[in-house]
Amino acid sequence: MTEVSVAKEDAAATGDLVVLKSVNKHFGALHVLQDIDLTIARGEVVVVIGPSGSGKSTLCRAINRLETIEGGSITIDGKPLPHEGKELARLRADVGMVFQSFNLFAHKTVLENVTLGQVKVRKKDKKAAEERARALLDRVGVGAQADKYPAQLSGGQQQRVAIARALAMEPKVMLFDEPTSALDPEMINEVLEVMQQLARDGMTMIVVTHEMGFARSAANRVVFMADGRIVEEATPDQFFSNPRSDRAKDFLSKILHH
Amino acid sequence: MFDFISDYNDPTLLGAFWMTVKLTVFSGIASLVGGTLLAAMRVSPVPLMRGFGTAYVNIVRNIPLTVIIVFTSLGLADIFGMTMGAPDDFALQGFRLAVLGLSAYTAAFVCEALRSGINTVPVGQAEAARAIGLNFSQVLGLIVLPQAFRAVIGPLANVLIALTKNTTVAAAIGVAEAALLMKEMIENEAQTLLIGAVFAFGFVVLTLPTGLFLGWLSKRLAVKR
Q1: Do A99 and B124 make contact, defined as CB atoms within 8 angstroms?
Q2: How far is CA B219 from CA A102, A109, B151, B155, B157, in A?
Q3: What distance in Å separates the CA atoms of residue B172 and residue B161, rounded to the nearest whole number?
């Protein structure tokens, strides 16, 4: 467990941004999150991996309370997650979320998707919001598609717009819930490149993914989950070359050796 | 053959159909607003609102419209003294009561059409909206309802056509619309079939373009996913 304590010391130096303490949740009889303790420091990129059904998506969604939890606590930037209402909406604006299925607003253009939150939540004037939106769309490489509707874009383009939409809110932390799992193989890289750039820029990121290459190259820490528990936490190098738990060894042998 | 038509001046044939149009337009707008509010209640996180919305729809849509319209006149106006701001002008009072009754009734159907539209909007749309910090009414008003409306323009056209024809029930409380004039003509004239045909044609003239236009609009505004 040395790696964990090292990570915690780092966190203390730069400030903990997201702290989960003994978080528990059931889906009916299924204990999907079991005593989850996890601390993410400002600027840290944490990749959560694990077999499907291990609770990693639920964990990600719990951090901005798209899933409620039954026990334990989640704090973001020192503030505990509020209950449903104005406070929660304010907190969610500070937590960017990117979904597996993009979830771009289907009846709005790409540009409107990226300006909506700025105008309605951040109360920016429309012009400033559009300027920022266009800059962000350029940054993720879809500036030319600004006036199209989501259905007219490829999956990779849609997901990059979704990232721009989240970034437009100037979030403190970005959550990625399997951002490349619904993409055709040739479009995965264009999304990962945007995410890698984001990581280099110092964004705090929690990424649930099956992209081991991304975990290796961009993550500060890999969290391995199985059956609702965090089984192992380590640096990517250590985790991929020398996993400690049998569960992780078994998982890695299945995904890496073919 | 049609010269009996010109014997009627209070109202004229066109005047009676104009009343039908006015009943339809006012009740249509009011029931759209009311139905949207009811639908918002039925999907709201507040149990009391959900309960009210569900109870309203299940009670109102199962009462015959005739009973509702007659109640507005004999109940609301005569017993509870609700004169709708026109205590001395019985024609205006009857018109307003009829609009109230028609709107209250039609709102239940608008609500249900809209609710089925809300169900066509993927959950992810609302989740993404919440994730950028929109509150409940913004999620509903900016993201979910605009998509739901586009999905149910067809069913809403059905509701509007039904409403147009349902305005004939206002004759029961003496509103001078098409059906009341038809009844009067049938009582006085010999050409019963011809009179029936004239009024049937009048309603088709009102409803057919409505249906065609809204059908075109629903294709044009459909949300592509």
Answers
A1: yes
A2: 25, 18, 9, 13, 13
A3: 20
Give the residue from chain B lying closest to A86, CA to CA: B135
- CA of residue A114 relative to chain centroid, distance: 18
Instruction: Give me the pLDDT at residue A84, please.
Output: 77
Burial class (CB in 10 A: 0-12, 13-18, 19+), B79: exposed
Kindly determine whether residue A166 and residue B143, on different chains, have CB atoms separated by under 8 Å.
Answer: no
Domains belonging to chain B, first-starting first, are 3-221 (1.10.3720.10)
Q: A-B interface: how many C-beta pairs under 8 angstroms? A: 72
Q: How many Cβ atoms from other residues are within 10 Å of residue B82's Cβ? A: 16
Q: Give me the tens of pLDDT residue by residue for chain A, a chain 258 residues long.
A: 344 444 444 444 458 999 999 999 999 989 999 999 999 999 999 999 999 889 999 999 999 999 999 999 999 998 898 887 888 999 999 999 999 999 999 999 999 999 999 999 999 999 999 999 999 999 999 999 999 999 999 999 999 999 999 999 999 999 999 999 999 988 999 999 999 999 999 999 999 999 999 999 999 999 999 999 999 999 999 999 999 999 999 999 888 765
By the CB < 8 Å criterion, does A24 face chain B?
Answer: no
Q: Give the pLDDT of residue A257.
A: 64
In the structure encoding, which two tokens stand for residue B23, read together?
Answer: 């009943």
Kindly provide the ipTM of the predicted complex, given to two decimals: 0.88
Neighbours of A107 (CB within 10 A): 22
CA distance A228 to chain B (A): 23
Q: According to the model, what pLDDT value does residue B157 have? A: 96
- What global pTM score does this model have? 0.86
Give the distance from CA A174 to its chain's centroid: 5
SS (H, E, C) A200-217: HCCCEEEEECCCHHHHHH
CB atoms within 10 A of CB B6: 9
Separation of alpha carbons B149 and A248, rounded Å:
49
Q: Which of B108, B124, B69 is nearest to A182 (CA)?
A: B124
Determine the Cα angle at A45 with ends A223 and A212, to 5°: 55
Residue B178, φ and ψ in degrees, nearest 5: -55, -45
Cα–chain center distance at A188: 16
Q: At what angle do helices B153-166 and B192-221 cross, to 10 degrees?
A: 160
First to last CA, chain A: 30
